[in-house]
Amino acid sequence: MAFKIVSWNCHGLQTHKEDIKSIINKYQPICLGLQETYLKPHLSAKFKNYVTHRSDFQQGSRASGGVACLTSCQIPSKPILLNTQLQAVALQIQLNSRITNLAREGFPTFLAKSYFCTHPTRPGKDKQDPNNYRPIALTSCLSKLLERMVSARLMHVLERSKWFVPSQSGFRRRRGTIDNLLKLETAIREAFVRKKHLVSIFFDIEKAYDRTWRHGILKDLSDIGLKGNLPLFIKNFLKTRIFQIRIGNILSDNFHQQEGVRQGNVLSVLLFIIKINGIVSKLPAYVNGTLFVDDIKIHCAGDDMGFIQRQLQTAVNDMGIKKWFYFLATKNSLYAFL
C-alpha cells in the first residue's frame, strides 16, 4: 500500500468509475478525494478494498462544491504528507470515521499492542538489576495519530469548562515548569520578607501510570458530563492493552495489562492528569501545592517549625489516602528555607 493521498476534480462519480479504478490501480492511494462531486443518498459506489464517504454538508443536488472521499481499508503506519487543503479534508473525514468505528467496535489488536525495548537508565548502573532499566514503548503510528486527535478534543473541552485545578501546569497550553518554579520562588521571598520559615517537599509517584485507576478515569469523564463516542473511545482504549518485551531480536509472550494506563501513548498522559487533578485541591489552609503531571510539590510557611511539620504531615496523610498510588521514598526530597 502506497502512502499517498490523491485529489481529483472529477465532476461526478457515477460517470467516472472506470477512471477512478485506473487511478486506484496506478497509485494505490490511502485516500482519494473527489472534488466537485456529489453522491446522492440513493446512489452507491463500491470499489474493492475502499470505503466510500459522501460529503454530509452538500444540501443541493449539484456537484459544485461537493466532496466525496474513498479511503483504503488498509491503513499504513507511516507519516502522511498533505499537500493541499482538500487532502487534509479527505484525511479528516477518514480519521473521524476511524475514531467512530473504534468507539463502537473496540480497538483492533494491531492498534492496542505495543512493544517494550529495555535500555539502562544511566551509564555505570548495575545491569543485573532490573530496576535500573527503563522500558521504551513502540506503538502504532496510526494509533498515535488518532490519540492525538482525541486528546486535542478532550483538552479543549476540559480547558473550556475550566476543569483543571489552577496548580496543574503539565502539558497545558501556555503553561510549564517555569510557572511552578515562579510560584515557589514568590512564596520563599514572601516568607523571608515576613521573617518566616518555609519548608517544601517534592514527591515522585511510584509506577504512577501503571497504578492509575481505570474506572476512576471513566467516572471522572462522566462527572465532567462527557457522553457519546468520546468516552466510549477512551473506554475501549483502556480496556484492550497487549504488550511484548523485546530484547535484541527476541520477543516475549503476549501480556495483557489489567490495570493502569499504557506508557508511551499520547492519550495516557491526559488521562492520568484527569485522575490526579484533585490531589492538591483539599490541602490544609496553610499548605499550598503545585502539579506537573505526576510531580507534586507542597510547601508551608510559618514562624514555628513544629507548626509547619504538623501541617505538612496532615497534607501528606490526606494525599496518601488514595489507594492507587504510592510515593517513591528514594526520589522524594525536602528543602527548608530558614
Description:
The chain has 338 residues and is of the alpha+beta class. The protein folds into 2 domains: 93 residues, Endonuclease/exonuclease/phosphatase (Deoxyribonuclease I, Chain A, 4-Layer Sandwich); 229 residues, no CATH class. It contains 9 helices and 14 strands. Strands 5, 6, 8, 9 and 10 form a 5-stranded mixed β-sheet that branches. Strands 7, 11, 12, 13 and 14 form a 5-stranded antiparallel β-sheet that branches. The chain has a 4-stranded mixed β-sheet with strand order 1-2-4-3, with helices on one face. Strand 8 and strand 9 form a beta hairpin. The relative contact order is 0.12. About 6% of the residues have low confidence.
Largest sheet: 5 strands, mixed
- What is the gyration radius calculated from CA atoms? 26 Å
Strand content: 15-25%
Order of helices and strands: EHEEEHHEEHHEHHEEEHEEHEE
Count of individual beta strands: 14
Summarize the structure.
The chain is of the alpha+beta class. The protein folds into two domains: 5-97, 4-Layer Sandwich (Deoxyribonuclease I, Chain A), CATH 3.60.10.10; 109-337, no CATH class. The protein is 36% helix and 22% strand.
Which structural traits does this protein have?
9 helices; 338 residues; five-stranded antiparallel beta sheet; 36% helix; 14 strands; five-stranded mixed beta sheet; 2 domains; alpha+beta; Deoxyribonuclease I, Chain A
Secondary-structure topology with pairs:
Layout: E1 5-9, H1 17-27, E2 31-35, E3 50-54, E4 67-72, H2 85-105, H3 109-112, E5 113-120, E6 133-138, H4 141-160, H5 177-193, E7 197-206, H6 214-224, H7 229-239, E8 242-247, E9 250-251, E10 255-256, H8 266-276, E11 287-292, E12 295-302, H9 305-319, E13 326-327, E14 333-337
Parallel strand pairs: 1-2, 5-8
Antiparallel strand pairs: 2-4, 3-4, 5-6, 7-12, 7-13, 7-14, 8-9, 8-10, 11-12
